[in-house]
Amino acid sequence: MGRRQVKRKCVSPRRTPLSVERRTEQGFTGMIGYLHIFYVTEASMNSAATQEARLYRMQTREHVCPFGLKTLDLLKREGYQVDDHTLTSREEIDAFKSEHGVDTTPQVFIASERIGGYEEVREHLGLDVPDSDETTYAPVIVLFATALAMGVAMHWQVWGTLVSPFLAEYAIAIAMTLLGLQKLKDIESFSTMFLNYDLLAQRQVRYGYVYPYAETLAGILMLAGALIWLAAPIALFIGTVGAISVFKAVYIDRRELKCACVGGDSNVPLGFVSLTENLIMMGMGIWMPLRLYVL
């Protein structure tokens, strides 16, 4: 008998189903690869979109232009690659101004277009442009916040606690002293602005020169808790006259004026804050003798 031939079939091996862990691992690998491609693509696009700017600014041995440095910092923070050209001599400066028909530096060029100086660059980038004539309460807010922080620090040093009835006294006395100091920095400028609304100064011009010294003295004495019989009447008097003057100018005459409370060169509007300052001084002038001699 002949051998029985067995037909062999080519059978594909059975595929074992992937485990859940294996499939999860492959999913994460694919996702990471996709994110990597996306990140590289986005970085390449951003790099390609990076703009260049040319800056010309004055930097001589005698003078470094502060607005040139501010412009350089602004452009870098906005993502520009800055080609920084420093003009180091009067000849270079004059030649540059003559060539481009400009009167000042710094000057910025972006994509062959002259943008201008610091403020023009801010405007080009869609940023706020500082207005030197715009009224603001920022100086008063900063001063009172500093006075409060100093009051807390002094109270902690003396009493070992953060809060007590004495905290308000410390903070107000420090605020009065700082306000007086701001006026004393340029007493001529203060007295000129003060004449616009203070009723007593309009009758006695010299009162505008006395006021800053009186406010500073009252604040220092109240902070020390000394000579309250002198400090309290001073604070009560100048606070009362100031409150009446501000109320009349703002709420009766409806005048729009700048307040001299932080000096004669500020843009703080005369209004509720100024009135509050004077009312607080009146309150201190009444409270301090009551606490020391009556209560």
UniProtKB/TrEMBL annotation:
Keyword terms? Membrane, Transmembrane, Transmembrane helix
User: In the UniProt record, which is one GO cellular component term?
Assistant: membrane
Give its localization: Membrane
Name the Pfam families on file: MauE
Pathway(s) this gene product operates in, as recorded in its UniProt entry: One-carbon metabolism; methylamine degradation
> Which residues belong to any copy of the Methylamine utilisation protein MauE domain?
167-289
The reply on keyword Transmembrane helix is yes
Residue stretches spanning the membrane: 137-156, 234-251, 272-290
Which Gene3D superfamilies does the record match to this protein? Glutaredoxin
Q: How is the protein disposed in the membrane?
A: Multi-pass membrane protein
From start to end residue, where is composition biased (Basic residues)? Answer: 1-12
Q: Does the keyword NADP apply?
A: no
List the GO biological process terms.
methylamine metabolic process
Where is the segment annotated Disordered? 1-22
Q: What does this protein do?
A: May be specifically involved in the processing, transport, and/or maturation of the MADH beta-subunit.
Q: What is this protein called?
A: Methylamine utilization protein MauE
Species of origin: Chromatocurvus halotolerans
